[in-house]
Design a protein that fits this description.
The chain has 144 residues and is mainly β. The chain contains one helix and nine strands; from the N terminus they run βββββαββββ. The chain has one domain. The strands form two sheets. Strands 1, 2, 5, 6, 7, 8 and 9 form a seven-stranded mixed sheet that branches. The chain has a two-stranded antiparallel ribbon with strand order 3-4. A hairpin with a 7-residue loop joins β3 and β4.
Length: 144
């Protein structure tokens, strides 16, 4: 069974720390007559992305257990909250927020299948101004 990012861990990355790109899926061959030809390497290539997240001291310990046990030292695939959409409020076309009968705001529940980038070291956690808050940059790959 594929692991799922734990609800006790941060559910959104910091906006300023997100970068995404398309996975490299081309094989380029030289030719005698022009600049070369390209073809797809496979039917799918993981799309790399990085995001920065903020953790409490307790969440760092929870993350390391997730990394070691649930992901087999970071080698397993897992479901991760989609950085661009997970947790955003749902609204009507005129901007009114959608709510439940009890008044709770409805949000998007969007998950993507990911893995930690295999050629990157494990995430490191550093502190800034607040000794109780830790930051880390994750290098992930979106799988299909």
């Amino acid at each position: 069974m594929v692991a799922r990012w734990l609800k006790t861990l941060p559910q959104r990355g910091l906006r300023e720390g997100l970068s995404r790109s398309l996975g490299e899926n081309r094989i380029v061959s030289d030719t005698d007559t022009d600049g070369g030809k390209a073809r797809p390497r496979s039917s799918n290539a993981p799309d790399p992305f990085q995001l920065q997240m903020r953790f409490t001291t307790d969440q760092v310990e929870i993350f390391w257990r997730f990394w070691k046990v649930d992901l087999g030292h970071g080698t397993g695939d897992f479901w991760f909250p989609a950085p661009a959409t997970h947790g955003l409020a749902l609204a009507t076309s005129d901007g009114q927020l959608l709510t439940t009968e009890t008044g709770a705001i409805l949000t998007i529940d969007d998950w993507i299948l990911t893995r930690f980038a295999p050629r990157q070291p494990p995430p490191a956690f550093g502190k800034r101004n607040n000794p109780l808050i830790h930051y880390s940059v994750f290098s992930l790959e979106r799988l299909w």
